[in-house]
Structure formats: structure tokens, C-alpha cells
Structure prediction request, 423 residues.
Amino acid sequence: MRTLSMTLLLAALLSGCSGKTPNPPGGTPQTPGETEPPPEEPLPSGPPVPTGPPNVPEFQPAFPGQTRAPAIQTKTALQVTEIASGFRNPWAIAFLPDQRMLVTEKPTGSLYIVTPQGAKSPAVAGLPRVDGRGQGGLLDVEVGPDYAQSGLIYWTYYEPRSGGNGLAVARAKLVDGAQPRVEGVQVIFRMMPTLESTLHAGGRLVFTPDGKLFVTLGERSILEGRVQARDVRSHFGKVVRIHPDGSVPLDNPFVNTEGARPEIWSVGHRNILSAALDRQQRLWTVEMGPRGGDELNRPEAGKDYGWPTIGYGEEYSGSPIHASPQGPGMEQPVYYWDPVISPSGMTFYTGELFPEWRDNVFIGGLSSQALVRLMVRNDRVVGEERLLTDLRARIREVVQGPEGALYLLTDDSNGKLLKLTPR
Ligand SMILES: [Ca+2]
Prediction:
């Protein structure tokens, strides 16, 4: 709470001690009755979540608490309910206004509509063909902010192209019914350049309340792609920010940089498979590191997150990638994992069903076979928990449902849609 107190003190000084508590600079306006800071709870302490030894023990964190935060434990008893199964490696969930869900299947390129009771529609017709090899296929799906009027849904996929493939973002009108279909498909963004790779697709979509769309992009894994991650002439290893029609916001950070791709928001990422907004509507991401070095970041406009120059991991072969985990002009992750969790899917919890989870971060864990929970204070991770480890399932997606439950997808040839509520 130190930062909050400092902010209030600074705000009081700036206001000339008028006696009225003003809005903190740069913060959200305070409403009457919310001017008192919440009582301070002691921060978690003690040993971290038990994991293996680090792969790169010689790399030390840049600040205390950047890795291996104290282990925390949820007090509420949990109930896991299977809503539906039989999905082939499902990837993403998006809620329609009537509480039905859109669910994507990565390798088949199929999109389904699933009722809260688990009834599955036929595959939605009319989606373009995907390159479903490896980590490609049909990836994220989001319901457009103006869906009630336009019926528009948005999705990411690996697009087969002449000379290779690449991530694309499309949108179309969803036409409901016994045989649902999409109409008027428009590709609004294409990751460039085209390159042949079945790996590191990225592909998360996040709408912001001011009507922009963030898209997370991987660097393709192969060396030819990896070396472009910090290069603004390439989309590889970037977060990009576009309007819902694909046009470029004029306040993007590189619109006036010669030769730069104007959609770029932040650079130097490896493979971002988790992205979500916090309560202040700021973007947070988690990217897959190599062996060691998964990273939680809060990507800001124009900043460089360092991959492949800096990081906390090493090649899968054990050979080094980075001379140092830190370097000038490059941002440090808020938090990192070595050994890795293999992140996919992310949400900030804002529901009422689990009061103790308020504003906590939830991340799906693939190789870690867990739902990872992080407690965050003042933009630092202060506690970590691994939930649902007894399922022994790779967790691909986590979203919050309209009633405050968490909905999950397991990454499996018989993938499941699960609902997490208090018991
Ligand atoms: Ca980084």
C-alpha cells in the first residue's frame, strides 16, 4: 500500500491542502465514500510454491519478488463441473450476451456455440480454412463490443499463404440458428512478413473500453523469426493495437517511425498466449519463455520487452540464449517463472463468487497442469498458488463467466469445458 499512500500524499500536496481529497494524478476518479484506502492486510510470506530448481540459477532477479513469490492458499472450497467434452484441443472461450459460449478448436479450425448446460451446436459454417499444424489453427475468439447491433465476432487463426503462413485476425457477422454460420468475413489484420512456421503463433485478442483491439503475436520460433522480435519493421514478437476495422490508431507509438509497422504497440516478446485487462483497463500479458523464463509483463506503448536479447531462460538444448537477463533500454518482466508454467489464457478476477480472489490474476498452465493464481499489489506479484493440480490436465484457457464463475478449457484430444465455482 506504500505507493497508494504516496499517491494520496502527493495528491494532497498538489491540491494545496484544500481539505478535499482530489483525484490521484493519472488515476481513476474517486467517488464519494471510496476515499478511504482499504485496511492494510499483511502481505503473504513464507516459502514459494514448490517447484524444481531453476534451469538457469546464475540469472538473479532484478528486484526482490520478481520470481518465486510466497505460496498462498485459497480458503474457499472449490467445485469443478464439466459442462461439455469432446473438443479437439480447444483454445478459447467467449461469452455471448445470452450466456452461451463460443468455443474454438485449434487443429480443426471449428467454432462451436455451447449452451450453459453444455449442448453443442454444429460447427459454425463459413470460417476460412486454417493452417492447423503445430501451434497454429483456429485460436482466440471474441464477441465484438457492438455485437448487440452488428452481430460481429472476431477470431485469430494461422492463415495458409503462398510462401508460408501467418497469423490473421478476421471478423464476421454470426448468424444464429440450427446451423449457425458467419457472413461477410473480413480479414482485418495480417501478421507480416509471411514465413513458414508452425510454431509460436501468439494469437490472443483483447478489446479495450475505448474501442481498440490488442492482438498478441509470437516470433515464429525459428531463428529467422526470432531475430525480428525487437525489429519494428516486422510484426513478429509484438503486441499490436488496431481499430476493430483493422485501421491504425493515430496515437500508436510507431506511426511516425520510418519503416515501422504502424500497428505495433510493444516489441521484444517471444510468444504471448495470455492477455487481459486489469481493473484500470491496462493490458497485462504472459509469454512463453524458452526453458525457464516465462514472463508476466504489463506492455506499455513503444516499450521493448527484450526478447531475444534478455530473458531468464535457456535453449531447450541447455545452451545459453542471453548473456544477461537485464539490459539497457529494455523492460524487466513484472514476474517470471523458472521452471516454466507454459501459460495460456488469462483473466483478472472481478466477480462476486470468490471475494478472496478480487483482482487476482488467473493463468492457464499447460506443462504445469495447473490453474495459476497470482496475488498482485502495486503492480508486483506478492503471492502465487497452483490450483486444480489434481485434474492433471493442461489448462489452455481461463475466462470469467457472467455470474462470476471461472470457465476453463483443457488442452487434450478430448478437451473439456469446465466451470469452477465455490462448493
Ligand atoms: Ca522480456
Q: What stands out?
A: Helices lie at 2-14, 147-150, 223-226.
